[in-house]
Amino acid sequence: MVTNAMADADNPTELIADMGRRARIAAAALARLPTLRKAAGLQAAAAALREAAPAILAANARDMAAGAARGLSGALLDRLRLDAARVAATADGVAAVAALADPVGMTIDRSGRPNGLQLSRVRVPIGVIGIIYESRPNVTADAAALCVMAGNAAILRGGSEAAHSNRAIAAALAAGFAAAGLPGDAVQLVPTTDRAAVGAMLAAEGAIDLVVPRGGKSLVARVQAEARVPVLAHLDGINHVYVDASADPAMARAIVVNAKMRRTGICGAMETLLIDRAFAAPVDLVEALQEAGCEVRGDPLEASIGEIVIPADAADWDTEYLDAIASVALVDGVEGAMAHIARHGSHHTDAIVAEDAAVAERFLAEVDSAIVLWNASTQFADGGEFGLGAEIGIATGRLHARGPVALEGLTTYKWVGRGSGQVRS
User: Fold this and answer.
1) Fewer C-beta neighbours within 10 Å, C or N terminus of the chain?
2) In what order do the strands lie in the sheet with 187-189?
3) CATH 3.40.309.10 region(s) of the chain?
4) Under a CB-based contact definition with an 8 Å cutoff, are residues 202 and 37 in contact?
5) Is the pTM of this model over 0.90?
């Protein structure tokens, strides 16, 4: 079940150490559970979330009112907000994870040595995973589901702005997990929003095997700077859409508007629009964004768009707005687009709109981002849209996991050797 720690919340170091000890025991039990037992727990948790929807929405209303009083931005309030559809989608996401293939025990590859020794690499759980997150209360359910299905115990520390929502979701998950007989400490919710608890998690070497931060730039930067345990994270989602000269204008318009304006506060939103100087209708793209309610910033010296954009400064090209603001630059073909992305991108998600397949394939091959897309909105940067069920986050590093991190990304592997009496000379 999802539990709250019993140790003294006034002593974050002792609190996290106690949670880690109990999580380690639960992780060992989870690693032995068969797929059907884990899946049954997630299905029960999904049903409990649906039943608890009124209580979850009431708790979220308290968080929303407090967030508005605190002056949270529109983007942050959008991340925090739950409605009936979002609660249902969260429950559906938990159920979807239950239906996915269990990676634990999966053989990655196998080989035989000349001496007859048979070797294989087999997926195993990571162990105890700490998730530190802000604003989005659905992460409580997503993280719990993914960790449990991958055989890991989880320690969850949500932000103060979503405290009531997180507790309500955790209570529903607890009811479902308990009904299915999952280990009691498989998922634990840190009972304090004191920032010292984050520091204690980052220093919990030996108690926590991996930390996953989900939140703003300051949180992720702090985690990466202070952590004494491995971190799986992305710092920014400075995502680009490049519209090539060969792009279909109607398709380009639809993709650009959707990439920016469908939800401006998510990490997959477009922040910079790059337009080939040879594209026939750059003004149409800028005006389409403006008509959708987006502020557009660009170089006022560009003859074709200068009079209709707000002047940009140097910081605009390196800013994750998470709001109805976009920067726009004219570039010299795919070479210029890739050079701009290399200078200013964050290796998250970048897209090209083009009818020229050779240009598109070059973009896909050479842009060094976790996700690259051709003729599709950057808003597809999501584990659910990739068929992975819920996701723990988008990883932009180059080691272990990259892109949407779901079940396989929450496992590691071990080598298994099967012999028949071999000894080494």
Assistant:
1) C
2) 2-4, 187-189, 153-157, 128-133, 210-214
3) 239-380
4) no
5) no
